[in-house]
Structure formats: C-alpha cells, structure tokens
Amino acid sequence: MSTETPLIGDFHAAPGATPLGGARIGVVTFPGTLDDRDAARAVRLGGGTAVELWHGEESLQGVDAIVLPGGFSYGDYLRAGAIARFAPLMGRIIEAATATSGSRLPVLGICNGFQMLTESHLLPGSMVKNEHLKFLCKDQVLQVENTSTAWTSQFTQDELIAIPLKNQDGQYLADPDTLEALEAEGRVVFRYVGENPNGSRNAIAGITNETGNVVGLMPHPEHAVEAGYGPDDATGMRNGTDGLTIFTSVIASLAGGAQ
C-alpha cells in the first residue's frame, strides 16, 4: 500500500483496507478524463495498488479490477461515452468483464465511466442531459440497495451515504421492461434520496449487471474518501468518507475470490 500522504491532515488507511494489499486496480485515462488521479488516490486509500492505463493500449496489464473514471471523454462529442466505447482498451475490458470462463473482471464506471458502460452494453439503459438541462454539482444522499456486488459488499443494506454529484448528462433512462427487470432482480445499486437531481427514472443513481461484477453510478465516490475533502457529515464539515467503502469492497471481494 502506498505511504503517500495528503497535503492536509494525516493519512490513515481505512479499517480493514488491506485484505489483499497487492490488489492491482487499473484506472483508465481517455482524452478528456478529469478524475483519474482522484480515482487512483481512492484506490490507494482503499488499500490497493493503482495502475495507470491509457485508452489506446491493448493490454490490461494483468489488473484485478478496473475503474473508468469521470470526465468528458472526447469532449462528449456525439454522446457522452459514445466514442470512448470504441477505444482499444475498452474492447479488452468488455471481454474480461463478460468472460465465460474463469473470474469476470470487476469494473466500476463513475459518471462518464457509467456512460461508457451503457454505451458498451455492459449495463442497460442510457444517460442523457439532465432534466433541467444544466450542469449540476452538489453533495447527494444515496441509499445503498444492493450489497452483493463486488463494489458494495462492505455497505449495509439500505445504508444512507453522502457522495458528491457533478454532471451534465446524468439522467438515467431505460425502457419500461428494462426498468421493471432492474427493480425485480435487485440490480438497482444506488438510489437518490430526497430530490431527484437530474430526472433519472425511478431515481436511479447506479446499477449493476446480472453477475454483480460491473457497477455504474453517476455520483463520484472518489471525492468522498478522505476526511477534510468530502461531504459534510455528522462528525464535521467535509469529513464524509462514505465513498471509500466502494474501493475497500472490491479489494475485499478480490481477496475472497468473489466474482
């Protein structure tokens, strides 16, 4: 685990963050990606080793899991995530995430990464402009509705968490049959609590695939991993670290051979 320290305050690894200290989590950078360094730091704070991956590469470098971070890949031309979906590395990610033999690669898509997952059909539905047609940036309360995925195993069922939300194309849409299936199969992972900030159907903030190794969510957990930089919580201003549990969850899942 990295011994890097933050600019302000002391570094403390999350409790239970080292069940598989050698876990190598790839963080993919595309032209226009903004949050790759934040995602890599979240991986390290969670007890893993962050591996930088470039979208144009052909090799996953033997990583144990993948994070597709937020940003505006290719300037969101055509549609958000539409061009990134055809990057050479995405082809390898799709193959590894849907493998019919061996373990399926855990993949997390955050914001623009969620958009890539829908464009690549690793997750159903699509993301369009926010209902109010404006960029949105706020701290958002979510309810955790599925704790059986590779990325949410250390949450408790129906736990309320605070995660920063910042997006322009954050409205999740799907046809009625798909929405019914997601609800019936328990594949809604995160749901907005209180105000529906972008008009997403059924207030959906994040979903998973049928096997639970691929998760996409619109809010940014990598911005809620370190006290002093996260949302406000009961312990004080900017002290929220709820997002860190996503990264410790995948490391614990890898250590247990899940997925």
Walkthrough of the structure:
By secondary structure, the chain is of the alpha/beta class. The protein has one domain: Rossmann fold, CATH 3.40.50. It is 19% helix and 22% strand. It has 5 helices and 11 strands. It has a 9-stranded mixed β-sheet, with helices on both faces. A two-stranded antiparallel sheet has the order 5-8. α2 (88-97) links the parallel β3 and β4 (107-110). The model is unreliable at 1-19 (pLDDT under 50).
What attributes does this structure have?
two-stranded antiparallel sheet; 11 strands; Rossmann fold; single chain; alpha/beta; disordered N terminus; nine-stranded mixed β-sheet; 259 residues
Number of helices: 5
Distance between the termini: 23 Å
**In which range does the helix fraction lie?**
10-25%
Largest sheet: 9 strands, mixed
Q: How large a portion of the residues is in β-strands, by DSSP E?
A: 15-25%
| Strand segment tally | 11
Classified by CATH, the class is Alpha Beta
The total number of structural domains is 1
Assign the structural class, choosing from mainly alpha, mainly beta, alpha/beta, alpha+beta, or little secondary structure.
alpha/beta
At the third CATH level, what is the topology name?
A: Rossmann fold
Low-confidence stretches: 1-19
Order of helices and strands: EHEEHEHEEEEHEEEH
User: What would you give as the CATH superfamily?
Assistant: Class I glutamine amidotransferase (GATase) domain
Strand order of the largest sheet: 2-1-3-4-11-10-9-6-7
Rg over alpha carbons: 17 Å
The average pLDDT score comes to: 90
By CATH, the architecture is named 3-Layer(aba) Sandwich
Basic shape: globular
